[in-house]
Amino acid sequence: MAKVITCPCGWNVRSDSDDELVRQVEAHAKEVHSQSPKREEILGVPRPEQRRRPER
Predict the structure, then answer these.
(1) pLDDT value of residue 45
(2) ∠ CA 42-44-45, rounded to 5°
(3) How far apart are CA 2 and CA 4, in angstroms?
(4) Helices and strands, counts by H and E, the chain
(5) Ranges in the chain, pLDDT < 70
(6) Helix (H/G/I), strand (E/B), else coil: 6
(7) Distance in angstroms (rounded) separating the CA atoms of residues 37 and 25
(8) In 3D, which of 54, 55, 53, 44 has the Cα closest to residue 3?
């Protein structure tokens, strides 16, 4: 199941891979916010993606 992280600035990322999620969040945090979050901090944030039910 994919995990999703939404930054307070509105940016978001979705990935099935923890490694990819961490890579993208690290890049965003560094480029946009001049921050360097640790892997453990990043992986404590994701939420499972909520799938919408098809409308009938």
Answers:
(1) 75
(2) 75
(3) 7
(4) 2, 3
(5) 46, 48-56
(6) strand
(7) 8
(8) 44
Strands, E assignment, 1-56: 3-6, 12-15, 47-48
DSSP, collapsed to helix, strand or coil, labels residue 20 as: helix
Domains in the chain: boundaries: 3-47
CA angle 28, 25, 32 (to 5 degrees): 15
> How far from 25 is each of 9, 18, 55, CA to CA, in Å?
13, 11, 33
Burial label, 36 (beta-carbon count in 10 A; 0-12, 13-18, 19+): exposed
Enter the pTM of the model.
0.78
Of 15, 13, 4, the closest CA to residue 48 belongs to: 4
